[in-house]
Amino acid sequence: MNDDVVKAGLPLLQVTTVREGMFGASGSGDTSGFGGLVSVVPVPVASAQPFGNYFDEIYAELVAALPLFKSSAEKAFDKIVVAHDEMTIYVHPTELLAVARTLRDEPGLRFELCLGVSGVHYPNQTGAELHAVYHFRSITHNRRVRLEVVAADSHPHIPSIVSIYPTNDWHERETFDFFGIIFDGHPHLTRIQMPDDWQGHPQRKDYPLGGIPVEYKGATVPAPDERRSYN
Amino acid sequence: MTDTYAASYDTTEGRVFTVMGQDWDTITGNAAGETERIVVNMGPQHPSTHGVLRLILEIEGETVTEARCGIGYLHTGIEKNMEYRHWTQGVTFVTRMDYLSPFFNETAYCLGVEKLLGITDQIPERANVIRVMMMELNRVSSHLVALATGGMELGALTAMIFGFRERESVLDLFELVTGLRMNSAYIRPGGVAQDLPAGAEEKIRETIKALPRRFKDTADMLVGNSIWMGRTSGVGILDLAGCMALGATGPILRATGLPADLRKSDPYCGYENYEFDVITKDTSDAYGRFLIRLEEMEQSLNIVDQCLDRLAPGPVMVEDKKIAWPAQLSIGSDGQGNSLDHIRHIMGESMEALIHHFKLVTEGFNVPAGQAYVAVESPRGELGVHVVSDGGTRPYRVHYRDPSFTNLQATAAMCEGSQIADVIAAVASIDPVMGGVDR
């Protein structure tokens, strides 16, 4: 667990990225729009107990049950963030299988449905560029929880949970296709949306959108990713 | 034999012969002693595969021994494109994903954005009622297409005619309210794009009064019909354990007897205020799913009726002028366009209003950094949206957990071991929409 914790519900933010753009002044009197404006991109820091809602129960169940699945809370959790009434558990990749199995099998948790994995690419978070975000839903307890697993771009490997949640088969293929995250142990990790011989992983931030300028009544509209960016 | 395509070649798995039809006898002699393995490629351009779905079937006689899906033929990079447009413009993209249930895509996305903005509680009551009403009308039109195309694929052409005819009357309502039959971009972060036009409530009342009688025509024709039963009953079975493992939701899950419906278990847009039943069947087969869709349409009309009673005059957009879309549409002599009152105001009366309009329309509003997951009960199951913001005016990442995508994985489990004809019935009962599958 992370040491610098704050009370749940107070999203204190920690800065990893700065973004520069033309407009969107904040914090300075310059509203001309050309002030070389810089805004910071925050990432959430850990929340501390009590998390509120049913999240404390989920946490307690996980802490109690993880040793049965050859893991422990200390080994598995990097941090826990509660924001927007949703619980995000940052799980260490090596312990993902144990955590997923606990979520599925433990009677007090019973997350029967995995709602797939969504990738997010943060090119500025060095060593943690690729995030795999899993959502789970328990029909028995009517609860939701989110797991987030981080991988470095230089070693984009995350264990596959298809053996525990078969529904993740296509979802993991899609995330591999779009982000290049390699899910170790997936039965056949191939591209699913893009053609088999496609180069690159299109949803990554360093992959251009493409497109061509369009001329209309004498004026030229640039391609979407070439247009003026406000921030 | 001179056909260059119908040739044979060696692979690591043995000699492979390709036949194109009418030339089977040219290789039967050559293939003697080889293990016969017939792989049939069905689609992506096959009238009964429900859009550009490619089925790869390994068959033994008429029996399917292995079934695999090939998808991606309708991938349009919507999620990527959204990262280059501001938050409100995102609505025009998501509405095109699952093109049979656009209002569900829009609502799910808007609920996600509103959650990040922290304005979920500020959405006006009237906007919520309109959202629920549009979604339930949309559920009817979507289920009608499911019944129509499903019927057509099994040879019940009258069901197709009836289904599309009824759907048309619902699309007329969409056109009346939003200006467009499909791809409306009507539901926006903060509310809906515009209020109901004059006369819309009466027209909706009229339509939902006429529809049940027409549903009865379809029901009379198919419910209990021995041919229809023969094609769908006991076909495409997926039990509760299978649904849980494969993540199948919606009518497929409810056909196993589990009353799983997000409108009841996790209400949004004020669904807790409406009375309706969650329809379940316990047959786990294509016929059960058909019955569920049929009965859900009646429940939806029931909800629309309650919506009309709840509609009270009021705003349809949040009060916060930093989020609410500044312009309103109106109908002029040359069709729908910007409201002339608004144009007069920004062009002639208030420079600040012009600046405000310009800023919101071109730049958009900032959404606080964070991530949210919101799910709605679409006609096909749990439609989830994972929205990530970095604090900017454009989405950092939007991912759709489309129920068609997930449910389609069940094809192999439903079809293997059955006859080829049952594959069609099983896929039709999944009701995949390839726009949602591929996005």
Descriptive report:
The complex is a heterodimer of chains A (231) and B (439). Chain A has 231 residues and is an alpha/beta fold. In chain A, 16% of the residues lie in helices and 32% in strands. Chain A has helices at residues 55-65, 73-76, 96-105, 168-179, and strands at residues 6-7, 13-21, 37-44, 47-48, 77-83, 86-91, 113-121, 130-138, 143-151, 157-159, 182-184, 214-216, 219-221. In chain A, the strands form 5 sheets. A 5-stranded mixed beta sheet of chain A has the order 5-6-9-8-7. A two-stranded parallel ribbon of chain A has the order 1-4. In chain A, β8 and β9 (143-151) form a beta hairpin. Chain A is globular and about 65 Å long. Helices cover 46% and strands 14% of the residues of chain B. Chain B has 18 helices and 12 strands. Chain B has helices at residues 25-28, 78-82, 90-94, 102-117, 125-153, 157-178, 200-222, 226-232, 240-246, 251-254, 262-265, 286-310, 340-349, 351-363, 403-408, 411-415, 420-430, 434-438; strands at 8-11, 14-17, 38-42, 54-60, 63-70, 187-188, 191-192, 329-332, 335-338, 370-378, 381-389, 397-401. In chain B, the strands form 5 sheets. Chain B has a 3-stranded antiparallel beta sheet. Chain B has a 3-stranded antiparallel beta sheet with strand order 10-11-12. A two-stranded antiparallel ribbon of chain B has the order 1-2. In chain B, α5 (125-153) runs antiparallel to α6, α5 packs antiparallel against α17 (420-430) and α13 crosses α14 (351-363). Chains A and B meet through β2, β3, β7, β8 and α4 of A and α2, α9, β10, β11 and β12 of B.
